[in-house]
Write a structure and sequence with these properties.
With 114 residues, this protein is mostly beta strands. It is built from no helices and ten strands. The chain has strands spanning 4-7, 10-12, 18-24, 34-40, 43-51, 57-59, 67-72, 77-82, 91-97, 108-112. A six-stranded mixed β-sheet has the order 2-10-9-4-5-6, with no helix packed on it. Strands 1-3-8-7 form a four-stranded antiparallel β-sheet, with no helix packed on it. The N and C termini lie far apart (39 Å). The relative contact order is 0.33.
Length: 114
């Protein structure tokens, strides 16, 4: 069964930057488009960025120009570099495939406040 281990979240001031990472177990990662999703108590989980195995990226409109998704195929990892953070970016961030499997990791909390 696939496992996702997200890390790197924390508290950051508005306008600050943060990079979060996700390690994916097994063969699930191979040739699969991966994405970062986020969820708050008030909103459904939404995709914010995705990257194909060859590196083509897409972004949700609210994060374009601020977030950068990347992957290291030989290490089964996906990263999300977040800059110009806003309070509305506060959420628990998860990685998963596209489409997402029913298994989810614990996520990593990103809080933008100050």
């Amino acid at each position: 069964q696939v496992q996702f281990v997200e890390s790197g979240g924390g508290l950051v001031q508005p306008g600050g930057s943060l990079t979060i990472s996700c390690k994916v177990s097994g063969s699930y990662f191979v040739y699969r488009t991966m994405a970062w999703y986020r969820q708050t108590p008030e909103k459904r989980r939404e995709s914010v960025a995705s990257v194909t195995y060859s590196g083509t990226t897409t972004y949700e409109d609210s994060v374009k120009g601020r977030f950068t998704i990347s992957r290291v195929n030989g290490q089964n990892t996906v990263h999300l570099r977040m800059t110009g953070l806003k309070p509305e970016d506060t959420a628990v961030y998860y990685c998963n495939g596209v489409p997402a499997t029913t298994t989810w990791g614990q996520g990593t909390q990103v809080t933008v406040s100050g």
